[in-house]
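Question (not urgent): is this output format expected?
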Amino acid sequence: MPISVMLVDDSLTFLRATIRFLEAHDDIVIVGTANEGKEALVQVEDLQPQIILIDLAMPGLPGLETIPRLRSIMPDVGIIALTVMNTNSFRQAALEAGADIFIPKSTMRTDLLPAIRRLVQGGEEEVTEPAVPLPDPSSSEPDSRHILIMEDNAHLRRLFSKALRASDYKVYTAGTIQEARDLLAQTRFDIMLCDIHMGNDRGTDLLSEYADVFATSGTQIVMVSGESHYRDMCEQMGADFFLEKPVAIGTLVGLVDRLTARQSFSS
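Got this back:
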């Protein structure tokens, strides 16, 4: 029998993306969703899920207050707390509230399925990894801004990354949507340079999928395309800037400098 899962999150974008991700696996079935804590409390007895995935930061009744109430209604249900706030204080608060496992949203693609399966099999080993790789104490590299370049043209990837590294940015590159997802699961980026046409895929799909993560983490999005008619669509989707190809290297570096300066001022 498939594992029955209930999702509780106030973001419809996140709910849709998570449903697609989980139901791509034959051993998972989504039995219901709720947009906030009170709705989850009303539905949970009728749905009888084996696993509940719940966001910690929701308006109304937040996840930290909802979890103990869910636990009192269904003492044996597996509860996995999800959040973009990957801190020890959030982790400890979630576990003390009654969650079995704490998973940062940035590591969901690698950690969520194993955690669900382990809970159903009777395990309660905690899963948590830092959203940003910890610095190497032996490294003399200064703290630098993290930039993700998502571009399927290998020549442009090398060109853009070389120019930005020369300006002391820490640059990661992805030639496919999946490579970008893998990097986003490991690191918080200050800026993502995102090509619209990625082979048969679209960079705008990734922008929609991670919209809430980007908004919460403060990642600034620069969409890139040789077709100017995408400009309005990208702005409507929440991108910070649109660059039309061909992109002059000086223009790119200057824009990244301005964006990182704006981040420093805002913080």
